[in-house]
Amino acid sequence: MIEKNVGLPPISSQDFEQARIKHVLFKSKLRALLYGASIDPEPVINNHACALGQWIQQVAFPQLGDSPELRQLDLVHDQLHDTARHLYQLYKAGRQDEAIEGLTKVEDLAEAFLKLLSVLEKKTIR
């Protein structure tokens, strides 16, 4: 079990469910951007500006500490945004079809992210 930091409110299953919802919203916003929606790209292309990145930094790390599982989750989160940023650059360069095809890489990373999140949750929540 991952040791929790004393003095902070305990992390709960609800916290992990909120992280999953934030992840789904990220994927939805990326897809919308690549299909031409007029929305702010910053939370999609910047891993520190998205709600999930803020959850990792402001909830998960302070409450769970610097565990290998959490570091791996954060790394995959960064890879998701690196990929999203690349796809958005393709879209802006007029290569929309190529950008949309790249969503399969996002799905692969997303699957890995969700698996890591579940592992972390199981090691954290009793």
TrEMBL record:
Gene3D superfamilies: Aspartate receptor, ligand-binding domain (1.20.120.30). It comes from Nibribacter koreensis. Residues 23-87 form the Chemoreceptor zinc-binding domain. It holds the Pfam family CZB. This is Chemoreceptor zinc-binding domain-containing protein.
